[in-house]
Write a structure and sequence with these properties.
The protein is built from three helices and four strands. It has 97 residues and is an alpha+beta fold. A four-stranded antiparallel β-sheet has the order 2-3-1-4. The mean pLDDT is 95.
Length: 97
């Protein structure tokens, strides 16, 4: 299992647009083969800070997701909606017994 964690800050005045783009890609990505969960979450203390949590069955499933049209549209849109570059980390995990 692969867990992808991302953090991005909305550009000033662009939070609503960023959340809209996040909502669209999350809905589409949940339909991707191998997607176990895909969501975005706003910080309680800093609403402009958005965290993404993606859980994939395998690295192959995540790799396929990165080539889908909805993912490319999202990445293009986000480049103008964030303040700086989003940060992403990938973690390998095993389900708990």
């Amino acid at each position: 299992m692969i867990i992808a964690l991302g953090v991005a800050r909305a550009a000033p005045g662009r939070l609503a647009e960023l959340l809209d783009a996040c909502g669209r890609v999350a809905e589409e990505s949940r339909q991707d083969q191998g997607c176990l969960d895909y969501g975005f979450h706003a910080s309680i203390s800093d609403p402009d800070l958005i965290t993404s949590v993606e859980i994939w069955h395998s690295q192959d499933a995540l790799d396929a997701h990165l080539h889908h049209e909805h993912t490319r549209r999202f990445l293009d849109a986000v480049s103008g909606l964030t303040d700086g570059e989003p940060h992403m980390q990938l973690l390998k995990a095993e389900p708990a017994p």
